[in-house]
UniProtKB/TrEMBL annotation:
Entry keyword Magnesium: yes
KW Magnesium (keyword) present: yes
Signal peptide positions (record): 1-25
Region described as Disordered: 30-58
Highest classification ranks of the organism: Eukaryota, Viridiplantae, Chlorophyta, core chlorophytes, Chlorophyceae
Organism the protein comes from: Tetradesmus obliquus (Green alga)
One Gene Ontology MF term: inorganic diphosphate phosphatase activity
GO biological process: phosphate-containing compound metabolic process
GO cellular component annotations of the record: cytoplasm
Family matches, as InterPro entries: Pyrophosphatase, Pyrophosphatase_sf
Catalytic activity: diphosphate + H2O = 2 phosphate + H(+)
Cofactor(s) this protein requires: Mg(2+)
Protein name: inorganic diphosphatase
Length: 380
């Protein structure tokens, strides 16, 4: 081993220690020193298109505790997170824990959404972060696992014959997340009913959310956000709304009341990501329900019925088909065509709350949702 590799591995070890061991010193360092968080767009630069973030090959072991008392967030009080396993491996697991009882808490079922509509129409609620701004590792809440821990999504490894030989952790191939990404607690997207706007059935998951604020949030962070709008995304014939919010404690939250207040370049950057990221992973292209397109009322709840009805639903602008798939850069450059506004999105959220109540009441008969229902009942 040459002296130069020794010092290199010394540095690598330090870095590795920072990545895997969330000691209080490391947490302190992560908050104080330039880290990927420091590269997140500053409030002044929030309008510029893509934040210049170095791809992070491993997750940062942020913990909610490390952020406690951080005035950049209005965190849910009374919980901590328990991280086991190394980031970047399939063993990594982040479990929410009730701080007073020490019992596991489900990130999906035991966190209140606490949706509030103010007199001026502004909408706030709690959101859960799975993938911080700038992160490429695809962390997800395990919806059918007891306690619903957050883990890295698995990808099949295949040999030359296409036989599955193992599993690897999944990363976004297209690039780092363009905001703090996660889900809305106590919501669910029913895969056996047609979405009231797109007609496509849901994806059997909680509603997805993207916080566009300037501060990078911790994995497992639960904090108040302000509703701005949504993209009516359709992924493999399933409705997969992407709700767009801003951290309620962000200085810009005071002036952002609707998606129309967000700079066009920022909206284009986010739309460009969602229009391309699945294809980058060799999956079918995503589609988007244009704002001008009429609602589709496909009643049978199947993808085939929705696809047939959708072919009828040319948007208000007759040149624009619904759903709009494989968006061109020209289309991505006109974000106002695709972002549904705050009030339309509030209706989307309310329907997903109703779907969740329906699931929780034990109404689901198919295996797909039974797997989701029992952890809700047994999360402690
Ligand atoms: C923790 O558990 C206690 C007792 O059940 C409950 O009152 C409290 O709301 C829980 N905390 C959280 C953050 O859920
Ligand atoms: C964290 O999880 C591990 C593994 O389940 C467990 O042994 C440990 O007691 C937990 N710690 C806390 C503080 O809950
Ligand atoms: C709490 O969560 C951890 C990690 O998800 C899990 O290993 C453990 O079994 C859970 N404890 C209980 C009592 O469910
Ligand atoms: C792998 O795939 C080939 C071709 O499909 C098949 O003939 C073979 O049995 C598979 N091998 C294993 C170990 O499953
Ligand atoms: C309900 O949705 C699941 C997918 O989540 C699907 O496998 C099942 O066939 C659907 N059932 C009906 C009756 O459409
Ligand atoms: C919180 O905001 C302050 C100034 O607004 C900033 O200096 C600090 O780095 C932020 N903390 C984090 C963790 O982003
Ligand atoms: C589409 O459906 C939503 C939800 O039912 C409703 O709020 C909205 O007014 C409808 N829009 C049109 C153009 O029918
Ligand atoms: C969507 O459904 C239609 C009709 O069933 C089918 O032709 C098409 O291949 C599906 N697309 C994807 C990406 O699954
Ligand atoms: C398509 O539109 C035609 C004419 O309005 C209507 O008769 C037909 O039922 C529609 N098909 C679907 C699948 O919605
Ligand atoms: C319809 O498309 C044309 C050409 O792309 C565009 O100039 C116009 O703004 C669009 N109208 C609406 C209502 O979207």
């Amino acid at each position: 081993m040459t002296p130069s590799t020794t010092s290199m591995s010394g540095m690598a070890l330090l870095l590795l220690a920072a990545l895997v061991a969330p000691t209080s010193a490391v947490r302190h360092m992560l908050q104080q020193s330039p880290s990927p968080a420091a590269n997140a767009p500053s409030p002044a630069a929030a309008g510029s298109s893509t934040p210049t973030l170095a791809p992070s090959p491993l997750s940062q072991p942020y913990s909610a505790q490390a952020f406690a008392g951080n005035g950049n967030f209005s965190f849910l009080q009374g919980y901590t997170t328990n991280i086991t396993g190394k980031p970047g491996t399939l063993d990594y697991s982040l479990q929410l824990v009730n701080a007073s009882t020490g019992s596991n808490m489900s990130a999906w079922h035991d966190v209140p959404l606490d949706l509030t509509v103010a007199a001026d129409g502004s909408v706030t609620f709690n959101t859960l972060v799975e993938i911080p701004t700038g992160e490429q590792a695809k962390y997800e809440t395990m919806s059918s696992k007891r306690g619903n821990p957050i883990k890295q999504d698995e990808l099949d490894i295949k040999d030359a014959n296409g036989n599955v030989t193992g599993q690897a952790p999944r990363y976004y191939k297209y690039g780092p997340s363009r905001g703090n990404y996660g889900g809305l607690p106590q919501t669910w997207s029913n895969s056996n009913i047609s979405d009231a706007v797109t007609g496509f059935p849901g994806d059997n998951d909680p509603l997805d959310v993207l916080d566009i604020s300037s501060t990078r949030a911790p994995i497992g962070g639960v904090y108040r956000v302000k509703l701005l709008g949504a993209l009516g995304m359709i992924d493999s014939n399933e409705s997969d709304w992407k709700v767009i919010v801003i951290n309620a404690a962000d200085p810009l939250a005071a002036t952002y009341n609707d998606i129309s207040n967000v700079p066009q370049e920022r909206l284009t950057s986010i739309l460009e990501f969602y229009a391309n990221y699945k294809q980058a992973e060799k999956k079918p292209a995503t589609c988007f329900w244009p704002v001008a397109a009429p609602n589709v009322t496909a009643t049978s709840g199947t993808a085939a019925a929705a696809a047939a009805a959708a072919s009828n639903a040319t948007s208000g602008n007759a040149t624009q088909a619904a759903p709009a798939c494989s968006l061109s850069s020209a289309a991505v450059g006109k974000p106002a065509d695709y972002y549904h506004d705050r009030d339309a999105t509030l209706q989307v959220i309310r329907r997903h709350q109703q779907d969740y109540e329906w699931l929780l009441a034990g109404n689901c008969g198919s295996k797909a949702c039974k797997d989701l229902w029992w952890p809700a009942k047994k999360s402690e």
